[in-house]
Amino acid sequence: MKTISVGDLRQNPTSALDDVEHGETYSVTRHRREIARLVPPPRRRPTRADDLRRAISRTPVDASWAQEVAVERSDFDDDRDAWDR
Question: Helices in 1-85 by DSSP H: which ranges?
Answer without folding.
Answer: 6-11, 13-21, 49-57, 66-74
